[in-house]
Amino acid sequence: MAGPKEDPTSRCCFSVICFFTLCVGVAVGVVIGMYVLCDDHGDDTTRPPTVEMYRDTIPDDTLQAILSGVSKTKIEDNLSVVREIGGQFRGYSGFGSVVREIGGQFRGYTGFDSVEQGAGPQDLQLLEGCWSGRCPNSGIRRTTVLPDTENPNIVSLLDNTGNPIYSSPKTEKILTPEENKTGVVPPFLAFAKAGVVQGDLVYVNYGRVEDYVTLSNNSINVTNKVVLARYGGIFRGDIVSIASLHGASGVIIYSDPHDYAPDNTTRPYPNSWWLPPSGTQRGTIDTGNGDPLTPGYPATETAYRIQEKAVDPPLPSIPAHAIDAEVAEKILSYLAGPPAPPEWRGDLNVTYNLGPSFRDGMKVQLNVSTRNKQSRISDVVGVIQGAEEPDRYVILGNHRDAWVFGAMDPSGGTAIMLEISRTLKHAINTTSWRPRRSIILCSWDAEEYGLFGSTEFVEEYVKTLTTRAVAYLNVDIAVQGQYSVSIGGSPLLYRTALSATQQVYIHTCGGVGGSLYCTKQHCRPHNRYGNLGSGSDFTNMRCQAGVPVLDFSYIYDVTKWDIASYPLYHSEYETFYAVKNFVDGNFTYHRAIGQLWLALALELTDSAILPFNLSDYAETMSRLKEQLVADKGDVLDRYLPGYDANLTQVIDEFTEAAASFMAQVAGTSTSKPLVVRKLNDQLLQLERAFLDPHGLPGRSYYRHILFAPSSHNQYAAASFPGLVDLLFDIKDSDTSQWEKVKQHFSVILFTIQSATSTLRDVIHFM
Fold first, then answer.
1. Helices then strands (H, E): number in the chain?
2. What's the 3-state SS for 87-125?
3. Helix (H, G, I), strand (E, B) or coil at 334
4. pLDDT (mean) for 88-102
5. Which domains does the chain have, with CATH numbers?
6. Pairing of strands 114-116, 380-384
7. Is the model's pLDDT at 9 over the cut of 70?
8. How many other C-beta atoms can be found within 10 angstroms of the C-beta atom of residue 62?
9. Is the pLDDT of residue 509 over 60?
């Protein structure tokens, strides 16, 4: 799925504009006050003083020696190898070769203590079909979807006699030799319902809830009509789900030049990074997580599988297909009806009408042949055992599968992970250093379908993860621009992220040089570390297992280009050629992300006391409360009098307990291992303390009370998500819904109080 990536635009993703939606972090400007600032030229040879809680971590000289070993040449070579092996889409014949390459490199690095990838090297054909070391006796079966390459999905315009006068192309145009390969998957939307629908069409802008309100206000109804939406506003699965709720018979989604080529429509790819008119964004439209037939449990051979009709959230119930801008322009050129509002008009050379009728009695036909299929998936997991605390895991993850060539999503991250594994192996084999805690590197499969590989892993090992995992560090789309690093995740890890950015040096921002920290302040002084929605493999680590997460990427200038994602996202044109010519020709920014990833891992593995800052969590909760009051205060005052005071009280109690705990950490001698272990156990369990075993109302698979994706746009974040869901479009007369609001609000208060109790003295916690 990778994303946001939208869209970003994932299933995947961690596209990364969603990081800034409903930002809930501590403003970097506030944090800067705690540090010595770099000057206007980005010269930060004098770095900010180390925060007290980072005592007894890896020495700076050792850290820099390891980071300096990360090679941009080797990262480029890794990406080139993946390109030469073949595509990474699950249906490609080359997919198993990518699995073997990653597993082989992990095995070849003698610093790794174990590598699991499904089958022994003598049985390589099983590597495409096994998961987590369970084959050949058992394995994971996942519900996946494949396009019918013999009968691909088609959108047609029919004349008044029902004869087609125009049909969408079956494949994207070949624009460089790199795309001229066999086996390229045609455009399709995974999990779209197979079938043929035809009739009138309504243009629905981005297909958001508010867009249908606008249509209703203009007396336009989409019931039993095909809708045409453009990418860029919300997750594509939510586009289809919302359309279905409004009674649409089918959905067509396209990429408008306004959102994917606003700066240079005359010289798109292969002359620039802008999406050409023939570019089509593939992707999943499943709004669930993991195997829909085994909700909440791993999809092992012995797992009970429910019927598709019982899946919750339901699988898409209407046909849907993705098309390019050229096809959309043709459709819109024949569409009649009132003109679209000015803000709904893109950059196609047509008049944007709303429909539903066509000129001359024409109709649109949508023919979807995509089919569901049971298949196996293969996560590859490499473990470096910790020297002192092998039962504490710092997990690094990146997904391996892509819709076509995936040079950015996700292969840039895959190439970096391989280089990190080589760098760690070299450090372990040539020095006396070994990490204090264990490092686990995970190459996830089937992320693009709906976070399948990581979700099944979390579901199978949730008991282990909730008791032993320190943090999960995710890289999906490693580099999508050259402007600045963007980071989102748990408030516990904000300071860790800042500390790591101080260790990585780079020249960027029009010649401004220095560490990622100082470059970030120069380029993005307004940026906050943001809350995460969904769209990539961090989702269930946080929302089901309660593991603190970070997701990061080097991004383009979002203040210059107001676009949904990097333009070539999920198209056939996301190639090695595009990376070399338009994104990161010298692989400088790939190396910077690799060094940041490694610096984060080493701080988390080698700090005697876990580098979590509880005050940032308290600050974040205060911000969440302020946002809730601003957004929903009027309606809550009517039905939950005193809610503000009650919420303020429990947050204040948490804030006080957090400050007391941090003072205790600062006064603890790390020479007392049992005391250190006690504090670390409390720190380790804090994020888990915000999980509710019953899950959010209507979304039991999301268990984190404070953070979850928006129920109306999975790429975006929602704070107090269960409460916001219940309050969405609520009516004063809806008594039963208000009772649910009251109940869930009490759960929020209780959960915060419970989290507070975990920070008190281990004997006097009551």
1. 22, 23
2. CCCCCCCCHHHHHHHHHHHHHHCCCCCEEECCCCHHHHH
3. helix
4. 58
5. 17-43+64-140+377-606 (3.40.630.10), 146-373 (3.50.30.30), 614-757 (1.20.930.40)
6. antiparallel
7. no
8. 16
9. no
